[in-house]
Amino acid sequence: MDGITNKTGTLAHNVKRLSHLDLPGAGQVYVEGTHCYVGHIPNKQQLGTSILDVADPKNPKILSQIFIEDPDSHSHKARVVGDLMIINSERNMTAIGRKADELPKLRARLKAELGRDANHAELAAKLGVAVADIPAVEEAERNPYERGGFSLYDVSDKKKPKLIHFHKTHGRGVHRFDMDQDYAYISTEMPGYIGNILVTYDIRNPARPEEVSRWWMPGQHIAGGEKPTWSGRQNRLHHTLRFGNELWAGCWHGGVRVIDVTDIRNPKTTGAYNYHPPYPEPSHTFMPVLKKLDGKRIAVAIDEEDHAHDAEEMARRRGRPHGCLWVLDVTDLANIKPISLFEVSELDSPWSRTTPGRFGAHQFQENWKGGDTLLYCAWFAGGLRIVDVADPSAPQEVGWYIPEPCGGKPCPQTNDTDVDDRGLIYLVDRYCGFDILEFKRK
Which residues contact residue 203 at a Cβ distance below 8 angstroms, ignoring those fewer than 6 apart? Predict the structure, then answer.
């Protein structure tokens, strides 16, 4: 690497850290004006959301924090428009995962095969869990998760956010989402569907959100007779972003989609592209470049590198492409074409093969405040990568910043980033840490 190490142990090129806070790990950072909103991943304190004053970027101040009452839930995403904030409510991941969902059909099948009720050992063998886990699976079956949804807050007083309404959805609940002054574009599980779908809500009266439409990929609506052509929940909506009358959707192993919402009550798919297979990492985020480049309409997509839990799993991943950044020609939405890829070499981070952890792409800023061709990408153990797509056939890295590991963890896990109207960069880590950065291109 040709960068320099500063006194705090970070690695950087064209990027300087202005300030740092030891906040708990986070899933999303969002900036509006001089305030920053951080959604936290599950943590011992049950902290859900932090609201910060960042008017002085060298001295950010925590104004308020929202804690989660339900120990089985987290709210790791936060978006704000004006004085309205939405946070998600999603079930924490557990060792037994969704095994409780499989129990009824499994019991019936085994009873037909065995001529009697299956015992715990037989159920455990089929579910792929330990016999000792079966009581917890049965308890989850008796008491399914009921807190999936999203909450709307009045944040006119940043020191005292007020809950307006909690809106229940279904299943594991809400993941990432977008919003504007009229609508919330929610990625959630819903009854009768396999995997997350898009549910759009009218939020002009935030005390009573009104569902106005749904969108899903063919095969997800199992209650409507559709049959998925994929395994489990591999194809599902991660989230959409609205640009004009279009929603741009990352659809996990289903690739990417463009959805026309000229009629918000009747969303229609107008473009699709899927690079799975052969690429193994799922599509996370998709959005258009705001101006034409080389006379073409261009879009960018980014993958989410999945998790290597131990050295053995890391070894199995060798030779497999890492999650990367895609540049696509979307001039003709009926015929989307890839133009180029950008990826980070394992040589470009000292933590590229550290376990547990991830190395590879995850997310980029979901706006173009920092420049109309600059992408600020959160790259897990690769830190922040700033990529210029002015030449869509040859994306160029123009800056990077890798924070030091924190909280006793073996590596950084840069998870999300945003850019404010001043061009300052906000960075959060899955493990811990919040940074405000300044980029100066040489």
Answer: 84, 86, 152, 179, 182, 183, 184, 209
Helix (H, G, I), strand (E, B) or coil at 213: strand
CB contact at 8 A, 39 and 28: yes
Cβ–Cβ < 8 Å for 223, 193: yes
**Tens digits of residue pLDDT in 150-174:** 999 999 999 999 999 999 999 999 9
Span 25-56, pLDDT tens digits:
999 999 999 999 999 999 999 999 999 999 99
Q: Pick from 428, 382, 286, 426: which is nearest to 437 by CA?
A: 426
Half-sphere exposure of 105 (CA within 13 A, CB side): 4
**pLDDT tops 80 at residue 350:** yes
Report phi then psi at 59, rounded to 5. Answer: -145, 65
> What whole-number distance in Å separates Cα of residue 216 and Cα of residue 252?
13
Integer Cα distance of 157 and 99 in angstroms: 43
Tokens of 172: 């594991």
DSSP 335-371: G-EEEEEE---GGG-TTTT-SSB-EEEEEE-SS-TT-
Among residues 8, 15, 19, 17, the alpha carbon closest in space to that of 60 is found at 19
Tell me how far apart the alpha carbons of residues 153 and 48 are, in angstroms, rounded to a whole number: 13
What the block records as the tokens of 82 is 């004006």
In the structure, what pLDDT confidence band is assigned to residue 339 with cuts at 50, 70 and 90?
Answer: very high
- Residues in Cβ contact with 306 at an 8 Å cutoff, skipping those fewer than 6 apart: 281, 282, 323, 358
Kindly write down the DSSP assignment for every residue of 242-266, as one continuous string: EETTEEEEEEETT-EEEEE-SSTTS
| pLDDT digits 0-9 by tens, 98-154 | 888 888 889 999 999 999 999 999 999 988 888 999 998 888 888 889 999 999 999
Residues 351 and 357 sit within 8 Å (Cβ to Cβ): yes
pTM of the model: 0.92
